[in-house]
Amino acid sequence: MPSSKFEPNDDILNFVIKKANGLKGLVDTGLENIPNQCIQPKDQRLEKSQIDNQESIPTIDISNFDDLSVEKSIQDAASKWGFFQIINHGIPIEVLDDLKEAGHKFFELPSEEKVKYNKESYNASESVLMFWSAIGEKDEKVLEWRDGIRHSCNPQNDSNLWPPQTRNQVLEYQKWATPLAKKLLEVLLKGLNVNEIDESLEPLLMGTMAININYYPPCPNPSIAIGFRRHCDMSCITLLLQDDTGGLYVQGTKGDNWIHVNPIKGALAVNIGNSLQIMSNDRYKSIEHCVAVDSSRARISVPLFVNPSPDSVIGPFPQILKDGEKSMYKHVLFSDYWDHYFSKRPSGKASLDFAKI
Ligand code: OGA
Ligand code: NI
After folding, report:
1. Residue with CA nearest ligand 1 atom 5
2. Tell me: the pLDDT tens digits for 307-322?
3. Around 88, how many Cα atoms within 13 Å sit in the side-chain half-sphere?
4. Distance of CA 198 to the CA centre of its chain
5. What pLDDT, in 10s, does the model give residues 201-234?
6. Within 6 Å (CB) of ligand 1, which residues are found?
């Protein structure tokens, strides 16, 4: 139960964010209609008519990772869809189940416990983690229907500061997922004629990692709320674990159609982020995606973001431009790009403009 009751005239940001009740706490008050501050403008909702059941993103069996046909499927999926699912990736199902379970345990804590992990604002250089319900809360008055917690998974970060409910499960998952992410990046780079990820490339491609746990509580009016607005990730690649609730949609090839990422037990979704789109000079696509919410079920998802280090300079690989291909992007400092993204929150594809020539 939330520690305090939400009254109609209460400041929602105070209740949800400052007191760390989260959207979960709001739902637990038994409210029948969502507050005005959670009603999305029409262009941010996902209309049923936009959902396309004809197209679907590929599912790739990677048990024979080194098979040339598997490599090609991954490279093709990254070029055409920017989003695909992988099965038989070798991460034990218990590791995935324990991680989702840990997410439930954390978000079901009383707000007095969760508030310890609060941070005033979203800031990439924070070494620990934060509990937040609205990125860009300063200038965005409409709350997404989501609670979330971020674990920065880098040597300088102290995992002892993470919640005891999630720490071991996140670390265990990271142990399995890091080599998988590296292998996926290697296959993707091979498709660009860039050699293996050696020490010079590692900071650029896998300089920092973060594992978030997103919790989408059930929503009384799902059609006018959104769990996660349409956006592109800033990462090189993102690995996403989702439960079987469903609700993740990616932009299809027709432009205004949205495709459901059907939950597959044991699978991980993989998507290309803006950084790799830039480095690949648009060969690989960072695709817009969003999350709709469910009226009866809470959903857990766990994205692992594999990002350049803040001091990396990102731009198209020289190997791609050597035969005279026109560069679509300038070289930018990743931390400048990151700060721009999180201060301006450019929606979807516009988030690439910062680096466009
Ligand atoms: C994200 C994201 C999708 C999901 O965290 O960037 O797109 O299913 N999450 O929660
Ligand atoms: Ni995303």
Report:
1. 303
2. 999 999 999 999 999 8
3. 8
4. 26
5. 999 999 999 999 999 999 999 999 999 999 999 9
6. 212, 214, 228, 233, 240, 242, 248, 289, 291, 301, 303
